[in-house]
Hints:
There is one protein chain. By secondary structure, this protein is mostly helical. It has one domain (16-205, 227-427): Growth Hormone, Chain: A (Up-down Bundle). The protein is built from 17 helices and no strands. It has helices at 15-36, 42-49, 53-80, 83-100, 107-117, 123-134, 137-171, 176-183, 185-201, 210-213, 231-262, 266-278, 283-322, 327-348, 360-383, 389-409, 414-427. The longest helix is centred in the C-terminal third of the chain and has 40 residues, at 283-322. The protein is globular and about 55 Å long.
Amino acid sequence: MNQPLDKLKIFSLSGIQMRTFHITWLMFFVCFFGWFGLAPLMPTIRADLGLTKAQIGNIIIASVSSTIVARLVIGRLCDTWGPRITAVRLLLVGSIPVFLVGLANDYTTFLLFRLAIGVIGASFVITQFHTSMMFAAKIKGTANAVTGGWGNLGGGVTNMVMPLIFAAIVGFGYTPHNAWRLAMIVPGIMMLIIAFLYYRFTKDTPAGNYKEIGRTGSAKTKTDWSILGDWRVWALALAYGMCFGMEITFDNVASLHFVDTFKLDQSSAGFWAGIFGFMNLFARALGGIVSDKVGNKYGMRGKGLLLGSVLMLEGLGLLVFAQAGTLVLAIASMLLFALFLKMANGATYGIVPFISDKNVGLVAGIVGAGGNLGGMAFGFLFKSESITYIEAFRYIGIIVIVISVVIFITRFRKREAKEELEPAVVAA
């Protein structure tokens, strides 16, 4: 069967479409271990390297800023090389700084390694691009949301598991100074395993790899730069900055926030930070599913209104979280804004595949880069010595609400959906 699937068979591994579906979300999941494996260990790393709040802020910014450029490049490479080879090469190159970050012994070298590791975050673009190639138009939003959500789930599992790996290494007699360094070898090995699986068991398209179907170097792979003049692309980039940008920011600061504000130990803080990530198990997929259903009934305009609504609810939830005075209220409000944040992630990529069927990778890359740009901008708030983490969360909540209004007035119309849906099926 060499056509895009029009049904998502979650529990199936038969057919290249579903094998690719499962391997590509697993790839993004594992990349999260490499990308954010250091985040839940930051209380230990902070003490080990003697880091200040400003330095930690710079590290947070570095961890997401390099991903901005990487996502733009990877989106274009998916259009040119195909997602399969792009994924394998990213995993192999990205594993190098993950393995070597343990060599860092001061702020500067740690910052540089964190910057290099951030390139791994571009794996998200591959996941969304590859999923779009494997599924028909009416199910793209749901399929993209599930692969993106299950991949993002790696952020939650990382926050929970890495402190346990660290504790196990300490239990074998190693000092904390050595334990956090040795712990990062685990995600490096995982990335190499996934690189093999990706190379061995996936194809670029249902019909075969780019070279097999003669796509490489064809007119189809030429970039239509006019897409940069489409305001919808930049609106989606802003929206993704507010949802995914906030997600990766929270992944970076959650453990430190729970340790400093509620006096939890590193393992407990990692657990609660992980609960935030675990919402991806269903919430991002829910956003994609609802986006598809709304789109089928109300077209692109309906998809846009849904995205604006969940962004506004995310912003309101963040304001409640910022005011939480107890751990119980903090956890409850965290779950509230996490639900709408992750639904917004799914709703954003429920729209992305229909902006330009000729340049799915470029659009996915620009919007994905927007997510990291948001994360980088938020990082400056957490870096400031004059702004507390609580105040930073409050300011972000207000900014998210403002951007939700921008999405409400962006002209996603049903007429556009009719024009885009048909060629999207062919291109996939």
